[in-house]
Amino acid sequence: MKIFEKIITSYNKEMPFVVYRKPNKKSVSALFSTIDSLTFTNSFTESGFVFAPFDNTKKAILFSLENSEYINEKTSLDTLISDDKKNNLDEKSKKNHIKLVDKTIKEIKNNDLKKVVVSREELVALSDFNLINVFQKLLSNYKNAFVYIWFHPKIGLWLGATPETLLEVNNSTFKTMSLAGTQLFKNVNNVVWKNKELEEQQLVTDFIENQLRNISTNLTIDKTETVKAGSLLHLKTKVTGKLLENSNLKTLIRALHPTPAVCGLPREKAKKFIVDNENYKRTYYTGFLGEINFNPKSTDKNSSLFVNLRCMSIENKTASIFVGGGITKDSNSKKEWEETVAKSSIMKRVL
């Protein structure tokens, strides 16, 4: 594929690019930037691809359509099943994460926090990292995810396969989702969800409904369903609506990001707890990425944004894999640790 060749060329020349495939699609799209400067957006009125951090007070990086070569190609990759890498469990990491979860549960029980999403960074040494091979494995193994590779010489290299849509917007009509609750897929037809996961999911859905009520009309909340993402199962609720005339894409993004699925409730208190207590900086993990005001062949303004989950950054032959989980008063710290181990395996199996 021409796109794969251009990935190598741009990466070697240290020129910014993003290559991605939307969930359940047969084609891969790419923007190869013609400039190497760092460009940001705060208005979300431009046309291009954004890469935004978890911290919603900071600007999103923009690869503008105007300053990029756009390519779209069909893929013909068969499913590649990689052997699951054994998780070399770091006892120190386990101890630290369990301690953090226990502290979070105590904090929730002692004040008005309802949920906090806490996460950790797992470092994996890479002996023979091949950028194209890893990207191809992501594309082949995670057909129903938003799969991407993103690079900027001033920021770094990121890859991911996220199951969570933040927003899909066509002119003034939008779709979003609440995605919470996690369990391992065990090839069973009757999936049983415990109260903890159901409550966590409902908190996210209620937040989205409350945030959108005053900026939209025709708001519809679908029934909650179970969805598969790699080796994991999640609870998902689809939400649709239409923006009011005095609202826009920025209004929508500010209302939703960061959602309780990656932050917590109340949002600002949960965010402060995360920043104060996680022992690393999330940067772009649990941020969002995707197309804004984007349709090269039409005057329609389409935006497709995804939450940056199941992702990793690569630097100096080391992969930083980011994983977390939603904590409520009913959480069990050892089970929360096991959930992060299951989530980290999604990235590990392609390395």
Automatic annotation (TrEMBL):
SUPFAM superfamilies: ADC synthase (SSF56322). It is an enzyme of class 5 (isomerase). It holds the Pfam family Chorismate_bind. Its EC number is 5.4.4.2. One of its GO terms (molecular function) is isochorismate synthase activity. Residues 94-343 form the Chorismate-utilising enzyme C-terminal domain. InterPro entries: ADC_synthase, Chorismate_C, IsoChor_synthase. The keyword Cell division does not apply. Keywords: Isomerase. It catalyses: chorismate = isochorismate. The keyword Isomerase applies. Belongs to the isochorismate synthase family. PANTHER family: ISOCHORISMATE SYNTHASE ENTC. This is isochorismate synthase. It comes from Polaribacter ponticola. The lineage of its organism: Bacteria, Pseudomonadati, Bacteroidota, Flavobacteriia, Flavobacteriales.
